[in-house]
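Re: the request from the purification team.
They wanted to know what the chain is likely to look like in 3D before they choose a buffer screen. I agreed to run a prediction and write the result into the notebook, where they can find it.
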Amino acid sequence: MIPTAIGGISVTVVFGLMAWVVTSAEQWPRIKLQFFNIDAMIAAFPRVLQGFWVNMQVWLTVLACVLVWALVLAVVRSLRAPWFAPFRLMVVIYIDIFRGVPALLLVLLFGFGIPALNLPGLPNSGLFWGAVAMVLSYAAYVAEIYRSGIDAVHEGQRAAAKSLGLSEWQTLRYAILPQALRNVVPALMNIVVALQKDVALLSVIGVRDAVREAQIYTATTFNYSSLIVAAGLFLLATIPMARLADYLTRRDRERRLQIAG
């Protein structure tokens, strides 16, 4: 009880001092007017919220595609038969390229470059190709997370599956992947949080998401409070997911300690 009270008091004192330092600054009234104007926030909120709904739709679509495509990449890279060597090499090259190129640069290249080619039979939407760029970029990271989970499964599991007459694919499907996916859930949750924020990168190619709508409002009113509204909406989405990621990580650690004990 006493440590909790001391902790609460210390938090109150520290944050109170920080608030006092900020609000007592000479330029605080000007900053408050430009960034924390309540009237401007209320005026910008409907447009920014509508853009944020675009962010959420793109995030869910990209997330589903990333989880599936990354699993395909990880499985191919984990196949050990000699005739899969060319495919494993292609996956390694893919991961090296898309992990090495910044996601923002990929969004610019795909969002502006491919529609400019006007290729027949392919969409010309910047939103579509920006989302594709996000899928390709994040799948490279998630594939490595999947692969770490696959490699963490004890080698005896493979040996036991093969002794039962299972093929390599059956071994992965029934013995390795279920355990691997369970092991990487906490790490995947961190990727989910990061992706939810990085979807805002699509604003650089003109997608009318929350960030873009906030920028439009700022350009017309010369007030930056709309950006605070956009930041608040992202926080409302990411903080619960971050806490869930912490909870899953803690549960996974406790489970491993129980197994080790």
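For the purification team: The domain at 44-260 is CATH 1.10.3720.10 (MetI-like fold).
Please add any questions underneath this entry.
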